[in-house]
Design brief:
Helix content: 25-40%
Structural class: alpha+beta
Number of helices: 5
Shape: globular
Radius of gyration: 15 Å
Distance between the termini: 37 Å
Strand content: 25-35%
Oligomer: single chain
Strand order of the largest sheet: 1-2-3-6-5-4
Largest sheet: 6 strands, antiparallel, barrel
Order of helices and strands: HEEEHEEHHEH
């Protein structure tokens, strides 16, 4: 199971800075604070994430792999995206490996400077075969917000 643990700086400085900005209502390159209930405790867990809009759909990509938030979403199928004081409930649907290629390409095009190290040298200009090779290591979820679901 693929998972890359964050280093000290990322965990204690960078993620906290992005989460603070997002909580203040300042989205840093599409950032949100993800809230998902813990699969065992039922308590809310938070993590800063990059929310990707691709072809009019919203996606969450796990650059570090099988993180706790990924495991929790797989069990609950839902969560909330926070920006400032606004919480946007959503339903999550995992994307198959075959469907991930263009989504991963677009995600890397936008955030490679931040997360590229987690993709083993694969970038937005890599071949479809290279992206398909790493797809199982990076869960992707299509996000449907209540507003979008009722529209």
């Amino acid at each position: 199971m693929h998972y890359q643990k964050p280093d000290w700086f990322t965990k204690h400085v960078f993620n906290r800075f992005v989460a603070l900005c997002t909580r203040l209502g300042i989205s840093v390159w599409g950032s949100r604070v993800l809230r998902v209930r813990g699969r065992k405790s039922g308590e809310w867990r938070t993590s800063p994430v990059n929310l990707l809009t691709y072809k009019g759909q919203l996606y969450l990509v796990a650059p570090r792999g099988q993180t706790q938030w990924v495991r929790n979403i797989r069990v609950s199928g839902q969560g909330e995206l926070l920006l400032g004081s606004r919480a946007q409930p959503f339903q999550a649907f995992e994307v198959s490996d075959d469907e991930k290629v263009p989504i991963l390409r677009d995600y890397l095009r936008r955030w490679k400077f931040e997360v590229g190290v987690f993709f083993g040298g694969v970038g937005p200009d890599s071949s479809d075969e290279e992206l398909r090779r790493i797809a199982p290591d990076h869960p992707v979820f299509r996000v449907e917000t209540e507003k979008a679901a009722s529209a």
